[in-house]
């Protein structure tokens, strides 16, 4: 008599195995998505701060040449545009006599909802010292969104 061997090899995944994989993916997504959104908000704030900080050089040069009175808008300091700022540009205001002034950008337009309405203000004193202050936005603001080198204003 021959010994007949029947092969009952499993072909594919069971339903319970698939459900476990879907549950694990769901848990990972629940953790990762909010972290990713925070990351996006932080990088957008840092990008806007970098774009505004780049204008300090042009402002300093104009002030040194005695053209501070002409620093009244973003074009006067060489700003082109930003998709993160309201109206695509910051407001610029300098006193030509003292050299004091501000470059202010309000987050809006294509910025993350967590930082919409946040204001980045880079100010120059009469002594030539630059400071940065950030006012929180109206969305899901978190203090970790403040760029390095800036202080949070209350």
UniProtKB/TrEMBL annotation:
InterPro entries: N_methyl_site, Pilin, Pilin-like
Keyword Membrane: yes
Gene Ontology BP terms: cell adhesion; type IV pilus-dependent motility
GO cellular component, one term: type IV pilus
This protein's record includes keyword Transmembrane: yes
Keywords: Fimbrium, Membrane, Methylation, Transmembrane, Transmembrane helix
Record-annotated membrane-spanning stretches: 12-33
Protein name as annotated: Pilin
Species this chain originates from: Marinobacter similis
Higher taxonomy: Bacteria, Pseudomonadati, Pseudomonadota, Gammaproteobacteria, Pseudomonadales
């Amino acid at each position: 008599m021959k010994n007949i061997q029947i092969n009952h090899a499993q072909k594919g995944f069971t339903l319970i195995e698939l459900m476990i994989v879907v549950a694990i993916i769901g848990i990972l997504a629940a953790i990762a998505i909010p972290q990713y959104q925070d990351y996006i908000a932080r990088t957008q704030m840092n990008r806007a701060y970098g774009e505004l900080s780049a204008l300090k050089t042009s402002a300093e040069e104009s002030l040194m040449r005695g053209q501070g009175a002409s620093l009244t808008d973003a074009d006067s300091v060489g700003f082109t545009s930003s998709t993160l700022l309201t109206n695509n540009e910051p407001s610029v205001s300098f006193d030509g006599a003292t050299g004091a002034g501000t470059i202010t950008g309000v987050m809006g337009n294509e910025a993350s909802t967590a930082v919409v309405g946040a204001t980045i203000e880079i100010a120059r004193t009469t002594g030539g010292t630059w400071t940065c202050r950030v006012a929180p936005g109206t969305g899901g603001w978190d203090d970790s969104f403040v760029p390095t080198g800036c202080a949070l204003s209350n």
